[in-house]
Design goal:
The complex is a heterotrimer of chains A (about 100), B (about 600) and C (about 200).
Chain A (H helix, E strand, L loop, with lengths): L1 H19 L3 H26 L3 H31 L13
Chain B lengths: L1 E2 L2 H23 L3 H22 L3 E9 L2 E7 L1 H24 L6 H20 L3 H19 L6 H32 L4 H10 L4 H18 L8 H4 L5 H10 L4 H8 L1 H4 L3 H22 L5 H21 L3 H28 L12 H4 L1 H15 L5 H16 L1 H26 L14 H16 L15 H9 L9 H25 L6 H11 L4 H46 L6 H21 L1
Parallel strand pairs in B: 1-2
Antiparallel strand pairs in B: 2-3
Helix pairs in contact in B: 1-2, 1-4, 2-3, 2-4, 3-4, 3-10, 3-15, 3-20, 4-5, 5-6, 5-10, 6-8, 8-11, 10-15, 13-14, 13-19, 14-15, 14-18, 14-19, 15-17, 15-18, 15-20, 15-21, 17-19, 17-20, 18-19, 18-22, 19-22
Chain C lengths: L4 H19 L3 H21 L3 H25 L15 H21 L15 H8 L6 H22 L1 H8 L15 H4 L9
Helix pairs in contact in C: 1-2, 2-3
The chains are: A mainly alpha (about 100), B mainly alpha (about 600), C mainly alpha (about 200).
Chain lengths: ~100, ~600, ~200
Amino acid sequence: MIWLVASALLFSIGAYGALTRRTAILVFLSIELMLNAAALSLISFSKLTGSLDAQVVVLFIIAIAAAEVAVGLGLIVAIFRRRETTSVDELRQLRG
Amino acid sequence: MQETLLLPLIIALPLLGFVILGLFGKRIGEPTAGWLASLLVLGSFLLGLFVLLQGGGKWTLSEWLPGIPFSLNLDNLSGVMLMVVAGVGFLIHVWAIGYMHGDPGYSRFFSYFNLFIAAMLVLILGDSLPVVFIGWEGVGLASYLLIGFWYQERVNADSARKAFIVNRIGDLGFLLAMGLLWSMFGTLSISELVEKVEAGGYSFTTLTLAGFFLLIGAIGKSAQVPLMVWLPDAMAGPTPVSALIHAATMVTAGVYLLVRHAFMLHDDAFLSGLIVAIGLLTAFYGALCSLGQWDIKRIVAYTTLSQLGFMFVAVGVGAYWVAIFHIVTHAFFKALMFMASGSVIHALGGEQDVRKMGGMRKYLPATHLHGLIATFASGGLVPLAGFWSKDAILAYSFEYGPWLWFLMLVASVLAALYSIRWYVVVFWGDYRGKEHPHESPPVMLWPNHILSVGALGVGFIGLPYVIDYKNFIEPFLTKAIGDFPHEKLPVLTEWVLILTSAVVAIAALAWGFRFFQQKMPAWYERFQAAALQGFYADALYNTLLVNPAKGLAELLFGGDRGLLAGFAGLGNLMGGLGSLLARLETGSLRFYLAGLLVALVLLVGWGVMR
Amino acid sequence: MSVGFWEILALLLLAGSAIAVVRLQNAVHAAIALIANFLVVAGVYVALEARFVAMVQIIVYAGAIVVLFLFVIMLLSAANANVGQDLMPRLPWVAGLGALGLAGVLIFAVTRFQPPTGPPSLGGGLPQALGPLLYDPEKWLYALLAVGFLLLVATVAAVVLVEPERIIAATGHSAHPRRDGQPNPPLAEQKDEKAVVKR
């Protein structure tokens, strides 16, 4: 049970980081933290309910996180090449 | 009568041409497209001839619609019509190869033309009324497409719409007749209807009503009074269209329909009388209007009206085979007349005003000959085609009543006059235009040569019984129409009638030939002014029908506008709300993320509290 | 589950390293704090009978993924966390309050979870236990295949994103075709003129 609480704490701290960090890489880092918190909660549930399926899901989370990081960092590099910045506040084209 | 797959094939050939030319026409190009279309129609003609010589055939696809088979029937009546449609159609196709030369819509034209032939063949061969109706609508569509062929000009598009809308009234009549017949007899197959009507056991009044509705359909398609206004305007289409659709074939579909339903008409004095009245009115109206026109094609169009009136009279007096006989002869001489006109138009680079023509006999000797033959055939000179069929109509009219004979004789005098007027203003006198006329190419002359032979000789298939020569067409057609016996006129009376009409025709032609070369007297000018407007039929219809309908439409449109304003207000309201929401879309990544997290807190909180 | 010394220690380590990740001003330091956090989480996994997942966590997450982060940080010389202009200077306070609220809601939610009594054994979360599940067509096999394909696509996508010129050179096609079907201009011309250059 305590690990569920730990997971909630990690998730909230990650959310705080994602909001306050201003470079894309660090926002991304905070998001990894949140993802990890979710995985932790799954492992805790696995222990509490005795189901191995949750552990399999965590394996998938890790694999997908790897794919996500590859694409995400690729995007950051591509943006950096064109805009010479990694600041998320300067990337404001994402609006109608 | 055996089942034969050749019947659908007859229809499929031109339909195939329509599809091929419609899809790949641009790539096939000129003149291959025209020759392809012509040969397919020739194929239909030869197949039809083959089946006809074998004694006819039928083809049925049972359960096409619930309870209604898709049945085709080639008997002697539809066979004769098929010969006319495909045969004359082929000649006009070939002629159009020359006439449409260089038109940007060349292949489109032939694809529509083939569509028309296919639809017309469906109309003719259809044995079940819904099948006939498909053809009926198909020819209407093809007519619409071809009248508006040069649709870039508003006048042409308007004429096409007018033809379509006026025809719609007739189509409504056809539909009502079908519904009524279905409710009475439970079948729509013509061959079964014949038996059921003979068997009796139905309300005669209801049958009269069904016949009346059919008559309305025929009136619309054959441009009889009072639905005649579309035909003169239909001349906006290219000349081959006028020749094929609006003279030789489609407009005779109404007559054909009535002849097909002769079994419903011949006992019905009311309907017969109505048909006679309508035909008589149309014969006079068309003849008088034609005398006042200046546009060469409108002259011929009104003569067509007049001749269609003759056919209606023939149907009305019970001379069904004569009506078909007149369709055949008329197809030859009227197509010839139209195509001679077309050759003149072609020679003058598109000029249609007869006031800028004249003297064409010096410039276009071959076309002049064609025009002369067409004039004599149409004017009823012995022994050309038009004389024999018109004379048969006159003879039957005399049986119906001598007064009708007299009126028809006057109408045929008018027919002689308008024919000779057309001939004189175009071919005689001095040339009044500026273009340098040139004779048509062989591809346009040869079809006219063949039609000339037809206009000269086709009347000999239906000579009156007093002349000692086999009347070929009467027994041939009555086999299919049904034999409605009538008393033959005494030999002496018959001879007197023949001689009268022959002499009158010659006199009218001779007088007209002199009269139309002079300067017109004042009374004729006044008459002409009224005739030019078609005796104000259009204006009358506009006042009585079109403008009130337009007023109603305006009124309803006003109501719509109010409703639309309400909807527009609603739209603006939603737009305002939307722009408020759009402010949330700042483009800032972190703002979006904050929104995401707020939503997460709310959702999880809601889930927990629940 | 009793809360003993090790649990308290792990909790403190987790919270401390996480706060370090989100507050340290040097991105390299933050990434290293993230590695520490992942290692502690891996330890927790072992305690929770998920040993195989713990190993994967160390190897893939702490080993590969964060190293990739470090690599990019150094490649772009983006170690400084305070780049550009702060357009929302008061956001940290709001975010802090929000995070507290989020933590409150989440903790409230998880404490209401009632675990079933006497759960069966997990077999220690060893590969012998996980493998049959992972490769069972009625369980996770197709998901596994899909994830494998996803990884492949992601790899290709990363290459395409980062090296468009090389794609053009190798294939003759642009990696980012334009709407109007014209070939892309050279990258130098593509550069957005309004782009702000602030380092």
